[in-house]
């Protein structure tokens, strides 16, 4: 028993239990007491659950991948199957292909040749999506449509791993829908708004995690934020630290960064923001960069 417990990361396990407890309260008692409070708690815990899912696919909080997956099995954020998230995100962790429109599954850039063929309204929507305001308003919709469309194409070609991911996602979503259909829950339309808002919050994190840069090591950001967003994102704002030490749990990343700050800032060639407030000021209405990959040839 002691050997089994030796590798358990108790802060992550405790936070996971707290997340589920607060989510359950937010969707029931708190929503009945005062709906805005219930919605706020549901939004935050849904976003936090996604960050805990990210921890699970990186091997936390236990040494068992199966147990880690089971701990985050209920799909609180609904749209992305755990197994598909795991496969695409671990592929994304190959720094040499970061931001590549084809090889990086999490790239927000597009092949300039594909961009040139898009209808003008689509290009306008994608340009707006490259502002922080657009990413908050349209990002969850655009990201989900693009993700599902790509997986449907893969499924039509015959992709058993993709099919397994979506098959396992059905009971994961059913658990959440079953809870929401029970007595005393907040209205379903309100919960749907909460899920969308939680996905919007997560888009703040991914908005400029990576940039187009000739040197792979200069593509990953550091955001020295220590506020509530950093907690919701489980310190993933220290993103280059996470990419260099993906096996390190979230609660140890700030210490690693403080002890080696100049090393990490040198590592990513100074791709750095002091806070999310700075990002809001600089990029809420102004795009951080173009949609077509700026280092790829323009046709």
TrEMBL record:
Keyword Transmembrane among record annotations: yes
GO terms for biological process, alphabetical: lipid metabolic process
Pfam families for the chain: FA_desaturase
Occurrences of domain Fatty acid desaturase (ranges): 33-274
Transmembrane segments: 12-31, 37-54, 66-85, 132-150, 162-182, 188-208
Annotated keywords: Membrane, Transmembrane, Transmembrane helix
Top-level taxon in the UniProt lineage: Bacteria
Protein name (database record): Fatty acid desaturase
